[in-house]
TrEMBL record:
Keyword Ribosomal protein among UniProt keywords: no
Lineage, opening ranks: Bacteria, Pseudomonadati, Pseudomonadota, Gammaproteobacteria, Moraxellales
The name this protein goes by in its record: Class I SAM-dependent methyltransferase
Keywords, alphabetical: Methyltransferase, Transferase
Keyword Transferase: yes
UniProt record, GO biological process: methylation
Amino acid sequence: MTTQHQVNQQQYQDKSQAYLNSAVHAQGIEFQKMRKLIQAHQFKRVLDLGCGGGHVTYQIAPCVDEVVAYDLTPSMVELVAQQSRERGFHNVIGQQGAAESLSFADQSFDCVITRYSAHHWQNVMQAMSEIYRVLAKNGKLVIVDILGNANPVMDTFFQTIETIRDPSHVRNYSLQEWMHFAEYAGFKVETVEKQSLDLEFQSWTQRMQTPKHAVETIRYLQQKASDQTQQYYQIQVDGSFSSEVLWMVLAK
């Protein structure tokens, strides 16, 4: 029996380089916000949860004493550790594991940052409880992830194309769902903002090595979507589109 964690690992075990080189993952206005938050609170130890290609780690390593780059996929962790050494960041520790089971002592981190990772987690409620546990008192959790939609038509369309592109996709949660997760885990909601992310179709599918038949299915669904859906996601002739991204800061 294949678990969701195994599906995730199988999907990403050979894609670390693609994520390292991904312009979408390497850029974003959220990096400046992260650095500003860390410096304002003088955070020393940060967990990059679901580090992927390591872009959060590289951005914040100069601002803190230690970053733990943590990911379910071993090759991602190895890549980030290697890249950090090459970039002169000797305060980066790589560790493999799942978001739902953080092998750290209580109150180990001043700040936890997760960027474009939560939509792969098998159990967000459990992961949020674990994050709360490992955060120090007055610590902050920063969540950056693509938003789902409260409208069922929009939501079904988006979750479907995400899953066809990447079978390890679990769910893009709506803002209402994120508010529920935060409050259930015991967090105080400090900041909620929305950003826009433009996704170029060819690189979006190539990064995941999406098979040709799956790419054709996504294009079919895009073309058959209602005018409202096409306009909301700004679907272009070549399949490129835009999605909403959540920037959320929670406090313990």
